Amino acid sequence: MSKKVIAILRGDYIGPEIMEAGLKVLDAASKDSSFQYETIDYPFGGAAIDQYSEPLPQQTIAGCKKTDAILLSAIGGPKWDTAKKRPEKGLLEIRNALGLFSNIRPTKVDPNLSHFSPVKQEILNETDFVIVRELTSGIYFGTPREQNEEKALDTTTYTAQEVKRILKIGFEMSMHRRKHVTIVDKANVLATSKLWRQVTEEFKKSYPEVTVDYSYVDAAAMKIITQPTAFDVIITANLFGDILSDEASVLTGSLGTIPSMSAGTDGPNLYEPIHGSAPDIAGKGIADPISMIQSIEMMLRESFNETLLADKIAAAVQKTIEDKIITPDLGGTATTQEVTANIVKNLKG
Amino acid sequence: MSKKVIAILRGDYIGPEIMEAGLKVLDAASKDSSFQYETIDYPFGGAAIDQYSEPLPQQTIAGCKKTDAILLSAIGGPKWDTAKKRPEKGLLEIRNALGLFSNIRPTKVDPNLSHFSPVKQEILNETDFVIVRELTSGIYFGTPREQNEEKALDTTTYTAQEVKRILKIGFEMSMHRRKHVTIVDKANVLATSKLWRQVTEEFKKSYPEVTVDYSYVDAAAMKIITQPTAFDVIITANLFGDILSDEASVLTGSLGTIPSMSAGTDGPNLYEPIHGSAPDIAGKGIADPISMIQSIEMMLRESFNETLLADKIAAAVQKTIEDKIITPDLGGTATTQEVTANIVKNLKG
Ligand SMILES: CC(C)[C@H](C(=O)O)[C@@H](O)C(=O)O
Ligand SMILES: CC(C)[C@H](C(=O)O)[C@@H](O)C(=O)O
């Protein structure tokens, strides 16, 4: 098997700390396997602004395009709040430059961590759904976008083609799950939502086994809290996905453990924790590395088809959590290093 | 004191049932007071479609404009799902026609009902905040709005003037509360949000006592669940307000009790329950009338300055809830009529 190339964007504040932890686990897990890889660092986010006055330098785009997968750690923070171009801008640009039109976020409640959820256990039950968010269109990229002192304007656009390709991702995913798709929109108001519904009505004919329903975004925002087990795969537009996936993430009670994947048609997928760069705990050695480690697990599974390796990491993480070797965000007292070392140890067990 | 005129839009499904309950309480509460009023019914929503093929007939707009306040009960339902113009369209039009640019939604956790909340008690504590939603601009009304088979487009617009007038409502409200305003936006992406921030930075200078902070809508969607006590007054754009106010409403555990107010510069305010027309329980006599009764309480307070009357109704409702004379949505077995009769009885006590 040829050597895989993984781009590493280390991030800001706690970013590099959890990236290092993740790479240790990847190294240990793959040691005695046939999976071979090399990593290449590229500048990105705040770190890239410091060095190149630009959150997404050309070399990073060009370099990433040639890799097999991208690992990105949390970026941004107060240091660049007044920067002309902020780190987050780089995030929008890399999605666009690499054609990463889908963002996948699992919301799965872990019984070992669900006591940290703000939501009651009897509501959570076995909550396990995925939000498939369209990532390179909608109001994030629509033009015109204008602003002066007196007025401002944003434009939301979708083409049938853009809707179809994100539906494809979500419907395919549902076929390996409970075959239930919920389209979240605001079709009682928005023209773009009406297009989504029209395209879905046609598209779903190719998936007769899949149950499809529609929910307005306001109703979905309620149901995610009151009845999260009602969802399997949610497919939605960029802005709604941004809001709902963050809302959903708090159900788990363990933000510091959740990975995500962004994917396009071809080219490398991008894997990253869903949380931010946590400036308040940076440098203290207590950041939760599990989100990064699970992002790596997701990469092995989705980009490299390394199911056994991924399963091994998943089991090792699970055991570490069960043994309560966990960082303060999960109510533990372990450091980033201790959690990482324990997971590495469990890989061998 | 001159007689006040109140427009009554009875709504669909459970709409008329809870309107009748509300008007009984208003009648009983005002009987021995100096508050004099008459009501005039106007066709609206599904009922108006049935009669006039139009959810908001001209006569309703013209009539409402001449009144001192409008009471609206829940509208819409499956009967009109395939109507050319759906009942909800009437809702958008009446807001626009009457210039009701602000929507006020209290989220106040009642200790007697909070056990119904999906969120844990230790998170809820004394949650008490208000969402001030801009209601007649943004993506709901921006043009162009276009759709064909291949693509669709929506436009979000805001003028500095529109932002200022909604800020005024929210800041004034905060002065009677904890003097804390949170502007929710997506200023890391949207031009309209950047305008909101610019206008706020200037506007807040007139309210030096008010603490102002900003939150991205995705972060706010999390914080409403994880730390709802952090909010006092949220001011936000039309679409964000739609999503967040529905999300927030479930915290109370008692959707069937929450009122709302929509207001403009002059002309009558509109008061309505926040919930829908609940077709599944229509005609069974078990709809919770408290949302409508509290909408009337809000009307007495805000439109007519009848604080004593409003307080009297509030106390009567509170006693009924404490005595557990409550409908099934709140875990009780009482009917709409029994709850209403009990509240009327408590008015005298
Ligand atoms: C940083 C921001 C522009 C970004 C988004 O809104 O997409 C973030 O919230 C996310 O969800 O990845
Ligand atoms: C029915 C719908 C158009 C409406 C809205 O989105 O404003 C409703 O959700 C509301 O909040 O009153």
From TrEMBL, chains A, B:
Annotated signal peptide: none
Cofactor(s) annotated in UniProt: Mg(2+); Mn(2+)
GO molecular function: 3-isopropylmalate dehydrogenase activity; metal ion binding
Family annotation (Gene3D superfamilies): Isopropylmalate Dehydrogenase
Membrane spanning residue stretches: none
Stretches assigned to the Isopropylmalate dehydrogenase-like domain: 5-343
Protein keywords: Amino-acid biosynthesis, Branched-chain amino acid biosynthesis, Leucine biosynthesis, Magnesium, Manganese, Metal-binding, NAD, Oxidoreductase
EC code: 1.1.1.85
GO process annotations (BP): L-leucine biosynthetic process
Source organism superkingdom: Bacteria
Keyword Metal-binding in annotation: yes
Enzyme type, top EC level: oxidoreductase
Gene Ontology cellular-component annotations: cytosol
Amino-acid biosynthesis listed as a keyword: yes
Family annotation (InterPro entries): IsoPropMal-DH-like_dom, Isopropylmalate_DH
UniProt subunit comment: Homodimer.
Family as reported in the entry's similarity comment: Belongs to the isocitrate and isopropylmalate dehydrogenases family. LeuB type 1 subfamily.
The protein, known as: 3-isopropylmalate dehydrogenase
Source organism of the structure: Liquorilactobacillus sucicola DSM 21376 = JCM 15457
Source species taxonomy: Bacteria, Bacillati, Bacillota, Bacilli, Lactobacillales
